[in-house]
Design brief:
single chain; alpha+beta; 9 helices; 246 residues; 7 strands; 6-stranded antiparallel barrel
């Protein structure tokens, strides 16, 4: 069965084109979508309040690095959730989900669970995590809090390997770090910076006063201490064959 660290067998869903295979939308579908957007509340989606552009690395192969766009909604002071896209274009692909929790919540997790999470301190201090078009002065108080958080990011669509549909098992992603495999390719950063007319180096210098967390739990960023990543295998299992109701 499929595994997150192996490319699926050849399939028509793989190719040089980035867009998913399919026919153009009909006029009727456009009308239905327009009417639905006017009549339905779409409340969860409308709670998204921030756009973050950063980078992520595959836990099982950290040489594979991607630019990511997180659309953040806050449930409370300790918990945020983010659908993740491969760009900020109108036709961007939804490639995963990240959950972000405070250090207080993270410390209460079982150790086996903590291994699946990554820290955000370096990512923010280094200027890799940016809120496009938001002045640093406005965003800095939020960044000071986020530097102490941890994230768990599952990638469900590996577009960087040419998948035109979401194929195989989800892949666990890690955050950039300032050591060996955690460093982001400068060309990838330059491409992002050119797109938004920003300088990651200048942003890093402007964040020098953001305090480092006093403690980053070593169970997070597990690969740094143990040189091990994580992959998911999908296996057949016996089904429960009784209905959950009489």
């Amino acid at each position: 069965m499929a595994s997150s660290d192996k490319s699926p067998a050849p399939t028509p869903a793989k190719g040089a084109e980035a867009a998913p295979p399919g026919q153009p939308m009909t006029m009727g579908q456009h009308v239905v979508d327009k009417g639905a957007s006017m009549l339905q509340a779409l409340t969860p989606v409308k709670q998204i309040s921030q756009h973050v552009c950063t980078f992520a690395l595959y836990s099982h192969d950290m040489c594979r690095q991607i630019e990511t766009h997180h659309y953040v909604s806050r449930l409370n002071q300790d918990f945020l959730q983010c659908p993740v896209y491969d760009s900020d274009d109108s036709n961007a692909s939804l490639i995963g989900i990240e959950y972000i929790i405070s250090d207080r919540l993270f410390e209460a997790l079982p150790q086996e669970e903590q291994k699946l999470w990554h820290s955000h301190a370096y990512e923010i201090k280094s200027g890799l995590w940016v809120n496009p078009r938001i002045p640093e002065m406005i965003g800095k108080p939020e960044l000071e809090n986020l530097a102490k958080t941890y994230g768990k990011f599952w990638c469900t669509w590996q577009v960087d390997r040419g998948d035109r549909l979401p194929l195989g098992a989800p892949a666990l992603m890690m955050s950039p770090q300032g050591v060996n495999l955690g460093k982001i390719d400068p060309e990838l950063v330059k491409k992002r910076d050119d797109n938004y007319s920003i300088s990651t180096e200048a942003i890093m210098e402007s964040r020098v006063e953001i305090e480092e967390p006093e403690w980053i739990n070593p169970q997070a960023d597990y690969w740094k201490q143990h040189a091990k990543g994580f992959a998911i295998d999908i296996e057949k299992t016996e089904m429960k064959l009784r209905a959950p109701f009489p």
